[in-house]
Design a protein that fits this description.
NAD(P)-bd_dom_sf, 365 residues, oxidoreductase, GroES-like_sf, seven-stranded mixed sheet, globular, alpha/beta
Length: 365
């Protein structure tokens, strides 16, 4: 006899845009609806063990107008993992299965769910099974950063033997990108990573052949041109997990003709709506402005990673890479359930080495 699902759960919620410290409130009675009415798709009730914080969560909290939400309150965190409690229209999953979850933004806007709630109802199509032998915490922070990096690598057309520059190589997206690029280019390829010198050991351990410490170079584009601008030293592509506009503007000095500068975003000075809109305008200009340098362009193609819903194929591929050791999640820090705001403080500081993870439930480590 199945247990009746709970009607409420504990969660960190918000009802209007503001900083995480101001917007977030811990409630013990966030409403749950499970099973969904009039739905024929498999839907899971998940006991969340860990959730990873992402810059997209900060954008949703601080800059996105709340009228875009269909619910009176919302929960942050796109990226989480946990254990199946119940399955409605059971097909792929059974109670007790450990899963990694990544609901896309439109689903979160419609339902208000997020990883910072103890129990989550979620369509099974947004979940993949945690690889055997891995702990739940190993999957925390894998999907959003990993799928972003994988899509960037695919968009740029990275291939075996390429020379690749990874910008922001110690961040969430960048640390995943270094590993995925290494898997693609093989031992015959070459990877240089841009990060702080304090993270050099980490980035080399992920597969980088060389590390450029941006803190040592006031003119980073100039240094990259000097170091990598010669014949046979330029990069085939640049994978930018940070969104360094100044590097893109000067990348002709170190990126081959025909090479792609693929950015996860364009970094903005703050998480205000106007800064976000300014980033969107810059992205549009990068894509549409003539590439000819004599017309004021960079002379190099720019692509932006627009992830949306990555789909099961990409999620399962990434989970497989976690399972066989080709990819691991780099964790900057792990925070308790009552320390969510402190975790956001670290993320908003802009210098986290890997993912900031919240311990939502018990176990999984």
């Amino acid at each position: 006899m199945s247990t009746s699902p709970p009607k409420t759960t504990e969660a960190w919620t918000y009802t209007s845009p503001s900083t995480p410290r101001t917007a977030l409130t811990l409630t013990t009675s966030h409403p749950l609806t499970f099973p969904p009415s009039n739905s024929s798709e498999e839907t899971l009730l998940i006991s969340v063990s860990h959730a990873a914080l992402n810059p997209g969560d900060i954008v949703s909290l601080t800059a996105m107008p709340f009228f875009l939400h269909s619910t009176p309150s919302a929960v942050p965190a796109f990226d989480f993992c946990g254990t199946v409690l119940q399955s409605h229209n059971q097909a792929r999953f059974s109670p007790g299965d450990n899963v990694i979850c990544f609901p896309p933004l439109p689903h979160m806007l419609k339902t208000g769910i997020g990883g910072l709630q103890k129990i989550v109802p979620i369509p099974a199509k947004y979940c993949v099974r945690l690889p055997q032998g891995k702990k739940l915490i190993d999957g925390a922070g894998l999907m959003l950063a990993g799928c972003t990096a994988l899509l960037q690598v695919r968009q740029a057309g990275v291939k075996k033997g390429d020379r690749i520059l990874v910008v922001g190589a110690s961040g969430g997206v960048g640390s995943a990108a270094v590993q995925i690029v290494r898997d693609v280019v093989g031992l015959g390829g070459y990877i240089a990573g841009v990060c702080s010198g304090r993270n050099e050991g980490l980035v080399r351990s992920l597969g980088a052949d060389e590390v450029v410490d941006y803190t040592l170079h006031k003119d980073l584009p100039g240094y990259l041109t000097e170091r990598f601008g010669g014949e046979g030293r330029r990069f085939d592509h640049v994978i930018d997990g940070y969104g360094n506009q100044e590097l893109y503007k000067s990348c002709a000095g170190f990126l081959k003709e025909g090479g792609v500068y693929d950015a996860a975003s364009i970094h903005y000075a703050s998480y205000r709506l106007w800064d976000l809109l300014g980033s969107v305008v810059t992205i549009g200009l990068n894509i549409l402005w003539p590439r000819a340098q004599w017309l004021g362009g960079t002379g190099r193609r720019f692509k932006i990673c627009s992830l949306g819903d990555p789909g099961l194929e990409m999620m399962e591929l990434l989970a497989g890479m976690l399972g066989d050791g080709r990819v691991r999640v780099v964790r900057d820090s792990v925070w308790g359930w009552g320390e969510v705001k402190e975790g956001f403080d670290v993320l908003m500081g802009g210098h986290a080495a890997g993912k900031v993870v919240i311990r939502v439930g018990e176990g999984g480590e």
